[in-house]
Amino acid sequence: MKLREQAYEKFTEHLLKREIRPGQFVTQRELVAITGMPLGAIRELIPRLEVDGLIVTVPQRGMQVAHVDLTLVRNAFQFRLFLEREAMAVFVETADDAEIARLRRNHEEVLEASERGVDEELVARAQAVDWDLHDTIIDALGNQIISSAYRVNSIKMRLIRQEATALSDMLLRPVMEDHLGIVRAMEARDVEAATRLLAQHITNARNRAMGL
């Protein structure tokens, strides 16, 4: 892996751990200290971060990490909805039964575990199951351009979740049950129902993030 790619992974890792915070101003030297990567790699990294919208250059102030605001929420969710809705239509028609069964099993196991109580470990597990369903739908397209763009947007989605929509003990069961409804539509190979339920699921998450 090239140093620039390592630096990108280090940056996003620290960003999602909130060791680099949305809206924070940073210098190249500070990014070197935070990521542990050499200055040359950081200099190569910055243009990619700017293209991905994770850093913006503010005149006379320097580099600012993207901050979570209503514009980011609207844009990130709209992008996600457009991609996932189209990907879902393809997935329902082409996914093999074993893959759909795996998705069902993952969600049912989380729901069964939640009946014994919800703790931080189960919430983290549920969040991973949540992301896996959406990533699986996108990656099944076999289109690296789409998958890469989706992954960048996913970083922004996770920043939004940290601010407003992180999966919690109160949301765990409703979200898992929403997903199971989508999985049942997949099993029935019902494209219309699957895309409609997915769109509603994403819209609900957007509304929570916007405080609606």
UniProtKB/TrEMBL annotation:
SUPFAM superfamilies documented for this protein: GntR ligand-binding domain-like, Winged helix' DNA-binding domain
Domain HTH gntR-type: 1-68
Domain of life of the native organism: Bacteria
Pfam families according to UniProt: FCD, GntR
Keywords, comma-separated and alphabetical: DNA-binding, Transcription, Transcription regulation
SMART domains linked: FCD
InterPro entries registered for this protein in UniProt: GntR_C, TF_FadR/GntR_C, Tscrpt_reg_HTH_GntR, WH-like_DNA-bd_sf, WH_DNA-bd_sf
Entry protein name: GntR family transcriptional regulator
